[in-house]
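haha ok so turns out i had the wrong file open the whole time. this is the CORRECT one, sorry everyone. sequence first:
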Amino acid sequence: MSSTDPRVLDAIVKAYDVRGTVPDQLNADVAHALGVAFARFCGASRMLVARDMRPSGPELVDAFTRGANEQGVDVVDLGLASTDLMYYAAGTLDAPGAMFTASHNPAQYNGVKFCLSGARAVGEGSGLEVVKATAAEVLTGNGPLPAATPGSRSSRNLLAAFADHVVSFVDPASIRPMRVVADTANGMGGLVVPAVFERLPQITLEVMFAELDGTFPNHPADPLQPANQRDLQARVVAGGFDVGLAFDGDADRVFVVDEAGRGLSGSTTTALLAAGVLRAHPGATILHNLICSRAVPEVVREHGGVPVRTKVGHSFIKQRMLETGAVFGGEHSAHYYFLRNYRAD
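then structure:
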């Protein structure tokens, strides 16, 4: 029986992920319980785990892996990764995954984003409540018994394969020479962004705050807040860059800054991406969440697409994409979901 009160799960299990402060809410005991619970919920023989650059990540991943191994599940550790890399891995390897990250939250936080094989979402109404209930049983000493044969732990690096996958979304020959500056805010973009752009030699890339540092020494990794885009906006103008990209901590959100240093909203970028997607997929269904600008469905209709409004949150959007056959979805918060990336961002 753990010394951690299982009621802490009420505070940290959200609608579509787990997130809390370390160690008072999320610690090794809780991570171990979640490992047991997710292994039981998935019923798979193998699962994936990865983490962002937060200092608490290694201990939490170790505890989670131990819990999954106790249930006889083999764990493939992807190491440091962005959340979208995890979704790619869950899709291409057809295995469930757990990404340890607290996204844009401050350094004292950590969390977990779960997905099933094929990067299918796990959230409220799609299994997260089951994981929570089993984890509570583990913390009270009433959890499932260990398997007769424990699972193994191995490592795999998918960064190069993921970068190739991202570049496959575009025709490199159609991209003109340009200068791009990315503010990765000491988050996982510092690992992933250079790997992608080095495959596009016509683009000159500069990365601000590229060092992976989960204490966020320069500014918070939350580009939704205008103050956190100011360094990038100033650099775009001073350096004469064509475009700026502002990433969050786990690099699954990106805001765009134009050549004049003006930040574009997630709604504007959703509309621009939707127009491009519809050129390749005429008449396709495009999702937008309920706080997106009215301009998004207007642009979708103007380009011959079918706009569908959905709730906020990645688990809801992924499920709605599956139900509607949508090829793309966007949120005002700068999450962008692609059918070709297993309906993930």
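The mean pLDDT is 96.
again sry for the mixup
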